[in-house]
Amino acid sequence: IGYLVLIIVCCFYGFNTEDVLQWEDVGYRAGYIAICQLPLIILLAAKRNFIGYFTGLGYERLAWLHRWIARALLFTVVIHAGFFLREWGKYDYIMIKIKADPITQKGIAAAGVLLWIIVSSVAPIRGLSYEIFVIQHILSWLGLVAATYLHVPKENQVWLWIPFAFWAFDRLVRVVYLAYNNLAVFHPNSSGFLACKATFEPLDDNHTRVTISDPPVKWEAGQHLFLACHVVAPLSSHPFTISSIPSDGKIEFVVRAKKGATKRFFKYAEKSYPSGQNSTRSSGRSVLIDGPYSRIRPLRQFDSVVFIAGSTGSTFTVPLMRDTVQQWKGLGQSRKSHFDPPPGAVTRYVRFVWVVKQSSAINWFASELDHAIRDVENLRHDGHYVGLDLSIYVTCDDNMTSGQASTRCSSTSLEVDEKRLITSEVRGYPSKECHCRKLLKDENAIVPVCDCGSVSTTRAANSRTSSYYTNSFENSRSSIVDNRISILSGRPDVSEVIRGTAECALGEMAVVVCGPQGLVQRTRNAAAAVSDDRGVHKGTGAQGIYVHAETFGYA
């Protein structure tokens, strides 16, 4: 809104729009304001740009501003054309001018291309096929530059060379990074032509783990890479969040198979990954990587942090949670530049919530979660006043029952109850209600077994005892993750999760969410509601709540 106000002021300042003699002057002024916005639009579209470097924002967040400034450009072009048409229309001169004046014809062509760029960039359209969108978007932009170059006066053509130079510089820098990251000649420990080789492992029915051992690039938790394996999926490159941290010594991705390249990755993993004991694992396929990209505000500056993830959104939150634990252990990355925050963490408490459809998904990060729990336990034994509470909600698993009570913090202590036990109960007869979809407002409540998939209510099925289910669930659960990690059947009440942490926080807190759009929006609304209820920044003394949201899909 502020940018739009600035554009309007720049277009109309000093003019009387009621004076017909000034209409042409307004049109010229608006044209100048329109063309001088092009460099900023291209800067915000670049993946490697100094705006993101100095602001700490990734290209995917600047892309939002890129689109809105492009819409402001279209608005300015409408003002530019509107006042000329208003003047010509006063004398019935519009069609004569369009047919006879080449400058006007080229201006209309440029405006038409700009309108197409804006319309084709809306989320529903660009989401139909992102690869096609990118290609046509670049071609359309080149067409816009060409038409505008022929339309504007010669003294104003420099405003077209500037954005073109920015675009070329971004491409050049990306090519240099791409070559350095991928060519083995720059990395003595690599063999062959390409430096990166990846293995593809099927995790379940539609997820693939892609692993690059000894990667030639450095990254931080929360960043992503563009991955291309042209042997498996030709002519495609997709962004995937890095699910590992630098201390692992490898780059891992958990990729959901949808269509296109991700589906080919999964099929290739099913065929190539060894399944038998005598099978040997191949060295992997050569891949190309581009990045890393994206940045997130340092979370170790907050007193309390809440992580909320849906399905593969855990690839974003798990590394950030583990990075916080690394900071507690004193193993965080050192300060690389003046713009990086100093080492150390003031965080006292981390609340981690992961929502999955099937309990089998827990295996994606079972070892990482176990290590985090044990690391925090060792830290507490060494006298560090920190707390980590992990809860996993299973929404669509027929065999799940309510897990265990979660940690409750008080105003005087963040003690983790190490004696929490798993309690489960089975009611006498199957219920028609799907308890896996139940909203759990109180994690201490016992939730009966989910009967979502029940197709038989025979007497034999009904005679199964509660102890049988309890024991079978205990055995399967203990083999997945540490008993101190809560596994519950149902959906979390996001508002209660945020409120509970906020009431215990002794300073500012952060909420980091990654997942489907619905979960992200509910989390945003819940954080805003909790902030308003507690009177944050309204003289009550309640500390602020920072929210970082990541959604599935492209920027």
List keywords for this structure.
four-stranded antiparallel β-sheet; 555 residues; 17 helices; alpha/beta
Mean pLDDT: 79
Q: How helical, in percent, are the residues?
A: 40-55%
Structural category:
alpha/beta
For the largest beta-sheet, the strand count, sense and barrel status come to: 6 strands, parallel
Short description:
By secondary structure, the chain is α/β, with parallel strands linked by helices.
Describe the structure.
It is globular, with a radius of gyration of 28 Å. The strands form four sheets. The chain has a six-stranded parallel β-sheet, with helices on both faces. It contains 17 helices and 15 strands. Helix 2 runs antiparallel to helix 5 (59-90), helix 3 runs antiparallel to helix 5 (59-90) and helix 12 (314-328) runs parallel beside helix 13 (366-381). The chain has 555 residues and is an alpha/beta fold. Mean pLDDT is 79; it is low at 401-433 and 444-478. It has helices at residues 2-12, 23-35, 38-45, 50-55, 59-90, 94-100, 102-120, 123-126, 130-151, 158-182, 261-272, 314-328, 366-381, 459-462, 466-478, 494-504, 517-534; strands at residues 197-202, 207-213, 224-228, 238-241, 250-256, 285-286, 288-293, 304-310, 349-356, 387-394, 439-440, 486-489, 491-492, 509-515, 545-551. Strand 8, helix 12 and strand 9 (349-356) form a beta-alpha-beta unit.
